[in-house]
Structure formats: C-alpha cells, structure tokens
Amino acid sequence: FQAAIFLYPPDAPAYASQVSCQMPVIAICDKNAVSDIDLIELDNFRAGSIAAEHLVSLGHRNIALISSDPSKSLARSNRIQGVTWQMERCGLRDHLRVVVPGPDEIEHAPGNDIGYRIGRAVAQRPELLSGTYTAFISINDMVAMGVIDALSQHNAQFPGNYSIVSFDNVLYTGLSRISLTTVDYHINLLAQAAIDLLLRRTNPSADAALLSSARFKVECTPQLVVRRSTAPCRS
Known about the structure:
Blueprint: E1 4-6, H1 13-19, E2 25-30, E3 38-42, H2 44-57, E4 63-66, H3 74-89, E5 96-99, H4 103-107, H5 114-122, H6 126-129, E6 135-138, H7 141-152, E7 163-167, E8 181-184, H8 187-202, H9 208-213, E9 217-219, E10 223-225
Helix pairs in contact: 2-3, 5-7
C-alpha cells in the first residue's frame, strides 16, 4: 500500500502514527480521536448540540435520545455529549433521557440492519409510547427509521404526535415519504478533502521537509437539514 484513509478512528492510533512516518495516513473522524496524523475533522459534539437546539427551539422539552452503546464509539459519545450540553445550556438537562437498548431487546427486534433494530426495539418501551416525550433524537438515520416504523404501528404520526431528528443525511432520508430532519456531515466534501490532502502528500514537487514535519487538519461544519419529521410541540 502507498497510502491509507481511515473512515473511522483507527483502532490502534499508535500504530497508525507509526505507519504515517512511512506513507500518507489520513483519518476522517472526531478531532479528539487521534492527534498526530492527518485529519479530516468531524465535529459530532457540535452535531449533537445542533439537533437538541432545533427541537428546543420548536418548544419540545421532554426529549429521548436513542442510541446504541456510546462507550463503543467516540462519535456516538460525542453526539450525546453535544445534546446533553445543549439541554443543560437551556436548563433542561433533567428533561433529557438517554435510552440504550439491552442485547435481549435488539435480538427480538425485526429487521436486518442493527441500527434499524435498535430503533424498533426501544420504541416498544412503554415509557416511549406513553406520550411523556414529545421528541426523539436518534443516534443515526437507521435508528430513526426503526423508531418511526415502530411508533407508526401504534398509529403515531411524525410530526403530528412526535418530532424526530437524526444524523448522517443518508440518501433515502430526503424521500418524500420519509422526509427526515437530520444533521448532514457533507460526506462528499469530507471525501474530496481526504483525496485532496492525499494528493498534496504525494505531490513530487511538494516541499518534502514541510510535508515530513507538518500535520494537516481540515474541518467541515455539520449542518441541520430541516424536513417534515419535526414541527412545533403541540402538547
């Protein structure tokens, strides 16, 4: 191999740093995941803050955040921290509940995608069906799809009864029947930035001394894409 691009934080950051002395190594991940290789920075903390700020601005106060185990993913953990920070900033920390399903719940949920199954499993809980929460934040778009499908089976409507916001802005979230409000990381821009940085690293005419000592960082700001899954709180 002549170069490596990580789409997630390297599992062995020290080894990735060692390899970067021999060839270009670029990671697309949160800035606090790895420090001494070229980095296309994601800001999942900011993304979480944006999602919570949107729902609070619509009058929602009781919000459930639905996620898989955050301890196993820095991106998930940072999103949750961003949501929590924003709720605290608005004086609503006690109105936020982070819901993580147990293995047994996921095992019996329908579907092939793990994110979708997480959403389906959690949305069956009585406390989420009771109407206590008027809005949900899903840790990614597939989890949101599971939540929407599960609650729709109980005749709930989005945004008639609930609002929901998610992360990633995958292709189908913009379809008219789904119309999911989500935070966009501009994946195309991130990929282009990684390739541009790689070309810069491998340019024969580049300053070899500069490239050997410098570490480059590129940051793309997440942006909220508002669609029909969120609306002012009606309760």
